[in-house]
Write a structure and sequence with these properties.
Elements: H1 16-19, H2 26-37, H3 46-52, H4 57-69, E1 73-79, E2 85-91, H5 127-131, H6 192-203, H7 205-208, H8 216-231, H9 236-244, H10 254-264, E3 285-287, E4 294-296, H11 308-313
Antiparallel strand pairs: 1-2, 3-4
Helix pairs in contact: 2-4, 6-8, 8-10
């Protein structure tokens, strides 16, 4: 029994030759009906059908091969103007002639060639000639063979280019080893105050130059190098100006630039200042006991002019 309602929109006409096909599987019949109900331009690749139906990719691929073998489907590979290769599928509501269940087109019958009668090349002999005895030929002595002339020596064949020795391969380019990067300077004496000042200076660089925004790991890695500058009597303002001045327009790795400057521009240690020589000691002023003149002497007494011993010596 059928309880039918007349469709006025959104329906597809499917022939009984498909729905009652005796060789197609139920999956292939349902897939053919689904494909015929889709509009032109819809995607019916195996991946799209697997997303639409619960059947596996293997069953859907086998059903498509069945429809293609029985003439309900035709798939061809085409290249788009963009260079992309796609599969174009044509669905037929009537099976296409020439398809076989095996998926191979029926071979066309070859025209049968009629045998060509063979003509006799030897003329027929008359009965009288066959009856007459044929004279026996006299044996002929073979003539003495003349000595064969000597063949001329073959001309030398030029050697083809393939036989020429191949040119020696060009020497491989020698790779120049890249020198290792110098390590960051480290202070000789660990000073906690200098290390803290270095951390504050690196973290404060973004206030003077927004592009010098450093991460916490980079600040901890560069802090010993800045402390080395402080150890060599470099003022924090001098270090800040050295790191901020003349930055490139496109700054992609600020930590690498700062590491290069802290290593390449590291100032040398200050030379040791020479020890100051003591000033020559001068004797204090004294008043002469004889003439009351002022003179320098370690102790009070007479001046040079009043001393009797100096006059006698003179």
């Amino acid at each position: 029994m059928h309880s039918n309602t007349r469709h006025t929109s959104r329906f597809t006409v499917v022939g009984n030759h498909l729905t009652q096909h005796s060789e197609l599987s139920l999956t292939a019949i349902g897939l053919a009906a689904h494909i015929q109900s889709l509009p032109a331009g819809a995607r019916i690749g195996i991946k799209h059908l697997v997303e639409r139906f619960p059947e596996s990719e293997t069953r859907i691929a086998a059903a498509l091969r069945e429809l293609e073998a029985h003439g309900y489907l035709k798939r061809t590979r085409e290249r788009l103007p963009s260079g992309r290769v796609v599969t174009r599928t044509v669905s037929y509501n009537q099976p296409v002639a020439g398809a076989t269940p095996g998926g191979v087109p029926k071979p066309r019958p070859q025209p049968r060639q009629q045998p060509v009668p063979q003509t006799r090349t030897r003329p027929q002999q008359s009965q009288q000639q066959r009856q007459q005895p044929q004279p026996q030929p006299r044996p002929v002595r073979p003539a003495p063979e003349a000595p064969a002339p000597e063949a001329p020596a073959p001309a030398p064949v030029p050697r083809p280019e393939a036989d020429k020795p191949a040119p020696a391969p060009a020497p491989a380019p020698v790779s120049i080893p890249v020198p290792p990067r110098p390590s960051l300077p480290r202070p000789q004496v660990h000073d906690l105050d200098r290390h803290r000042t270095a951390l504050d200076l690196l973290a404060d660089l973004r206030r003077h130059e927004p592009r010098l925004l450093l991460g916490e790991a980079d600040i901890c890695r560069l802090a010993p190098a800045v402390a080395t500058w402080f150890e060599r009597d470099a003022h924090p303002d001098v270090v800040r100006r050295t790191l901020v001045a003349d930055l490139p327009e496109q700054l992609t790795r600020p930590a690498g630039l700062l590491a290069h400057r802290l290593t390449a521009l590291l100032p040398p240690p200050l030379p040791t200042a020479p020890a100051e020589e003591p000033a020559p000691r001068r004797d204090p002023l004294q008043n002469c006991d004889g003439c009351d003149r002022a003179f320098r002497a370690p102790e009070p007494g007479h001046c040079r002019e009043c001393r009797s011993d100096l006059k006698e010596a003179a």
